[in-house]
Design goal:
heterodimer, A: about 190 residues, mainly alpha, Rna Polymerase Sigma Factor, Chain: A, Arc Repressor Mutant, subunit A, 2 domains, B: about 375 residues, alpha+beta, 8-stranded antiparallel β-barrel, 3-stranded mixed β-sheet, elongated
Chain lengths: ~190, ~375
Amino acid sequence: MDYSGYSDAELFGLLREKKPIAEAAFAELYSRYATRIYNYCRTILRNKEDAEDAFQETFAKFYQSAQQEREMTNLPAYLLRIARNTCLNMKRQRRQEIVSFDEEYMYPTRDDPDREEMLKLIETAVELLPDDLREIFILREYQGYRYAEIAQALNISEEAARVRAYRARKQVQKILAPYIKDFAQHM
Amino acid sequence: MEKYSFWVHLLLEGELESGKEAEIFEALAKYPELREEFRHLVLMNRSLREQVVRTPPPKLTQTVFDRLFRGKPSIAGSLMTFGGGVVVGVLLSLAIFFAGQWSQPAHSPKAVAEMPDLPVVEFTMSAYSQPPVLGDTAHYHFPVSVVEQGSEEVEAQEAARLVEEGGEVQPKVTGVSPISVPLGTEPLFRPSVEPVPQRLPALTLDNLISPVSWNQLQGAYRETMTMLSNPQIQRLSGQLERPFELQLGYQIAPHHIVGVAVGREPFPQRFYLVAHMETERQREEYDVRVYYEQVPVLWWAGGFYRTQWELFPRVVPFTELLVGGTQVGPLFKATLGTSLKLTDNVALQLGIEGSALLYQVYEKVFATQKLNLIYGLKVGL
């Protein structure tokens, strides 16, 4: 069964059907959004094992929630909200523990060492942002979510999302100020 | 101005209203700081666009589908996996332990997580390195055993006495006096007051290994090993170079040497800046003190003064003061050490060196203090 032409809302409705249909619909939704959710979990949790747990949990909750009839207007934002809550809960649980960071996440291999270092700098600067700004920055800059999706996932207005993203970028830029000039000259 | 700054961000996101484009371009032409912000944002955006996007691993995808549509894995399978993992883990741990490689990686994120509750940004992971140094000049005193002979008059009397007794005339050794000769200023094997006797000195171990001469101009190569550092930054690069120093010195008086030195070594730095937001209200909410950590490997050069004295034969303690500079700020070093002579022109040096590097970041001055172990070789030139 090819569900690639179906809308998100139609596929969401099919999740309540019999198992083969539900599985095919789920597979189509998974192919559309799994990468974004996976990257979101990796970015937020920064630990591969935790991120994979959160990722699994997100899709499990999503599937369970689909068993109850509900109107689905913005599925990516809905999935993101589930992922966000799952990751935040996991972070709260881990807060007291010393979590080993995923080196491969922190410093993934890239061909261009300058750009790699620039990304590394941005990633470390993002870690210094207050939670609300960091979240917006990750969603917007790393995950590429639209402001409408971010607004719905975070339950804020689009304008508020836009302003927070601006503040986040501004703050990152200031944190990197001592180094960014050098990079600007090299790149 | 903040309005234009916000507009620049919207412009780069393609969300600036079309009517405002002309105004923002005018503002960009007018304000250099706005243009700089624009350039920096372009740079950041370009880097962010090139970030690695990860797809979920196939195994994870399989797990999700198994969990939702095919039930959970069996307990037996889990136990087998768990048991196999334990066995492999134990074997691997034992292998590593017995191979003597059980160590915490220097570049440990855990180490950063355990640091005090401060935001930390680490930007530079430079190598640990250094090249050779001139400079360790030392004025050695070597004990020399010299055979003293009696005067000609004494010898003549002794010879006459021997002849009378029917014996054979032999030169008489009247004594052996250990003396210390400051190398480089006095010829070796010569008593300091009396003329050199026309006899070879006694064959002793000292004579065999002592140099015949020692130039006042001397050079040295030595390396350093950091024992303590403030700031202490544990996350050093895995590629460590050897910190080194080259010295060239000249003995201006029996116990005093001056010279120049050049070296290269890492200086852990930890400084902070405050990233301010634009308005007072935003500052209260979002200002953050950002700590930067880096370990640049710097070239340095300077002049030194050393004083030394002979404590034991072949052992010459010294103290040394150095004032120099790096590309980031002035450098001060003080060393307490000793030289141990090995061969004619070569001596081993060991010591403890304290150093302080001052550097300025914007209007603030920060310092790096280190305590190093130094070791190296000195040669006469």
